[in-house]
Fold each of these.
Amino acid sequence: MPRALFITFEGLDGSGKTTQIRRLAGWLKNRGNQVLGAPEPVLGSSKALDSESLDSDPVLTRQPGGTPTGDRIRALVLDARSTGLAPMTEMALMFADRAQAIAEVIQPALDAGKIVLCDRFTDSTEAYQGGGRQLGAEPVLELHRLLCGNLQPDLTLLLLPSLESSLARARARNQRVEAQSGQNENRFELEQDAFYGRVWDQYREIAARESARVVLIEGELTIDEVHEKITAAVAARLHAAAPNR
């Protein structure tokens, strides 16, 4: 059976997650792994398997979204026109999306021994709803246990450049996307800085609590510097998962 590996990316919008998940997908592809199910095109070209490559095709997905049901939930919770959502409603929608993604995409891929790269997972809910909406970590973790079978990533890559630069990039990107496509996913970016301060603090608390799982990459690093840290962390997990070590 090939070796499964569940890798999640976390951080504020504008932290560079999309760029880095693409680059990691390309890096894996260059090691001989074809990336399937990507919501956007990925980089890299296919090569012959080397001695450290996995024998399965990684799956790239995101939350909210990644399934037909999840995409409908995403459209609701991220659209700036979705006003008046109660914090508990928002959290329930996030977990509905996640439970569907686990059942439809993530767990089947892991059962088949594939690498799964997921843009956001329950750490996002703990940071945004638990921290930002001030619901606390406890109900988030309990819902994760009940609705998600307590599925945990093997590795979480938490990108935390400065709060100010993340928000500026996220707001500029969403305005550009809306101008080009008419799609408005700016609902969270409309929140005040105090909300994001709580999200930021909760992410750091998660990193401290889950230090064996979470690799914290912080500061104003270049794209290449972040990529190097990510590939080093992933290579270490691949090596640790290798049979007959």
Amino acid sequence: MASSDILNCLKKAALLLGFVVIGLIFAVPAQAQETPAQENSVKNDPKGELKSSLNDLSNLYQNEVQRLEKRQEQSQHLYSDGLISRVELENGAKALAEARAKVEAVAKEIAAANQAAAIAANVVAAELSGVEPAWTTGNNRVDNLIRYYGKQYSVDPYLVYCLMSQESSFAAGATSPKGAQGLMQLMPGTAARYGVTNPYDIAQNIMGGTRYLKDLLKMFNGRVDLALAGYNAGEGAVMKYGNSVPPYDETRNYVRLILKRYGKKQAS
């Protein structure tokens, strides 16, 4: 898998940690092997599955940093010998810097998620009781816009909330290394498609992202998993693999993490 495909979602995973109760422990010894009983316990425990997903994602990006470090060291020698251009060397350095920035970002997002544990506990309790989950971004205007555009475009506001949490951790000024912008991380082409002239305007961004999600749900016959995969990897990638979640580690973790929070609810 190309590094450009891998780097995009590191910033997205951490806020879902609030879905897990405060005592959830993330560190798992790399050498430890699970017994069959432990494997069954993880499979039957949503919190354990979420922890496993996050650990997999963390390991994926740590490995990517190590790979880029080795490649950059080799590139430096090749550049010194006149075998590659300065542009190639600088591109490698940029990719490495972005990967390291993602590692630092996830640590900050984990800390932020832990601060939201009280809200997350209410969400978990509501989901377990079968009651419509209570949710808030921490900003009343953003909450109201999610509800407004969700109703206007017939998309479950809670699904919009879960996607936004994963995409930007509710940071209106968020910009990804690939150029995705705002609360719902709209790429420039997607923003233009839905008439978003300022992706950092929260109303425009939520409108554009919700409309895009609506179109994806319609395209994939209400399949939330495929709509999420299309949002992350593009609808073309979903269709390329026979209307299934593409075999990209980034996309599969993205879909799995959001669905863990969203549960079995379907867009209305």
Amino acid sequence: MQQVGEGIYRLGTDIHNFYLLTEGGKATVVDAGCSKELSKLDAGLASLNMKRDDVEAIVLTHAHADHIGFAAEANDAGTEVRTSEVEGPIATGEQKVHAVKIPQLPLWKLGTWKFLIGLVKVGVMKAPSVKSVVTFSDGDVLDLPGKPRVVYSPGHTVGHSSFYVADSKTLFTGDALVTRDLLSNHDGAPRLMPDIFHVDPAQARASLDALGGIDTELLLPGHGSPYKGQVAEAVRIAKG
């Protein structure tokens, strides 16, 4: 676990991230990694003298397998899971998730295999549906530690959301804006994910404009290292 901001911690692997947002001895979990990573959450909480009962909710940027991973298991044990109104039926299995199929990927690239194998090891092939979710809308300020504000950023999925924490000027961007290219494993520069990963590439690009006007000091993506600075500059770089 890596501390990336005041009361904010990064977990996962070098390929993908989920986060702990803590305040007053309680926590919000941003995304749920892959299905075998619940133990990482428990270990991270323990290192902060916290336990899973101190988690107020898991908030999901979207319902892909590397973001919804352990949410079902945690939910079965009593942890609340929240996601957008649009993404909710996908998280509960009522609607089919749009996800890239392995044969569609450039399997001749070494980087492709590195990210595939890395995610398979932590359970990406299993993404159980969550039995019960609480939904939120664009612009909602969630009554959770950190008081994250919902910023709809669809395109990667139909109901993708980002989360803005005003007190620390931190933006959790999920897969709307990342800093790691999963097909080359290059890390550091803000970028859109390759079109093949998006349900609507044009909408994914347009959603950057919804993020670009936010006052930030730290961006925390679903894939890649944290980016320090204004999201407007990150968007400029990502758009090329």
